[in-house]
Amino acid sequence: MKRIVCIALVLLTFAASGFGAGKRTYIIGFYNLENLFDTYHDDGKNDYEYLPDGGNQWTEAKYAKKLANMARVIAAMKADNGRWHTVLGVSEIENRHVLEDLVSEPAIAEANFQIVHYDGPDRRGVDVALLYKPEQMKLVESESLPFDFNSQAITFSLNKEEQERFRTRDILMVHGIIDGEHFAFYVCHLPSRIGGKGQDLRARGGEIIYEHSLQMMKKYPGIKCVVMGDMNDNPTDESMAIYLHGKENIDEVGEEDYFSPFVSMLKAGYGSLAYRGEWNIYDCILVNKALAQAPEGTLRIQPCIKKGKKRFYARIFNKPFMVNQSGLYKDTPFRTFSGGAFINGYSDHYPTYIVIQK
Length: 358
Prior knowledge:
Blueprint: H1 9-12, H2 14-17, E1 25-36, H3 60-81, E2 87-93, H4 96-103, E3 114-117, E4 127-132, E5 137-145, H5 160-165, E6 171-178, E7 181-189, H6 199-219, E8 224-230, H7 238-241, E9 246-247, E10 258-259, H8 262-267, E11 273-275, E12 278-280, E13 283-288, H9 289-292, E14 300-302, E15 305-307, E16 310-312, E17 315-316, E18 337-338, E19 341-342, E20 352-357
């Protein structure tokens, strides 16, 4: 399969150098932190493998290395872009405590990231959250949206008893104001693909986000909506293309559609994670028409990469230190564990982001 994961330096530096001087620019991104657990047991959660005497022998020393590695990636994105993220959605975090430790890491402490997090019902204890710079975004409100089966359009594979037992991550909605403009951010980690299942559950996740965002658009006319997360689906799958109304081309986005910039990137061979030799983009970001086709003088999504006449409106971030340089998994994300052994890597996903500017 064609792979375009590490692209030419001239393309990678476009994001840092191509956003005009004198214009106000903001970075909006997402990063799956791959099991950022502390070393303590949380009541009611199956986090035993991430304890000092658990399967991963998860010690304070390993936890400290994991925090430093995650901070290194965030700092590297700042160095590339010349600015910290205004908003960074994250997934696979255990609790607020690990986020407080992360934002205090020396490599990123100066960013002064604030945290929006709710404890969710996932049995392993992993949640989603949002980090933001309070100097750039004013927090208005937030809400944790639970997963439910209240759909008129989807036929579920789980029976009623199985539905009652089912637990997954909540969806985080954060309403804020950036540069005088209202935004709604949705951060999610949709249900797993384990066993080749869950297509209907991920479709419902997309539907929940879509329905709530329509309510926000009605309540706050002109609000700019951004959906981000580990979708466990590619942007071409039905959860994104049908239930979130994701469109590949920015000019095709209707009033109740989303622009899905990673569709064209997936088709061009980019990937944010690899599984059994195949590259996927599960770490998606979509934006509504109000942000995709914003009027002149207001915040609008910008191209991040130029390749000939082609422009891509998003970026998958990777640097050599984030990539396996040898072995069976060469050229794939350098993760925390391999074959059950701690290898002091980063994440099995690359972070993704978009740039907005007025």
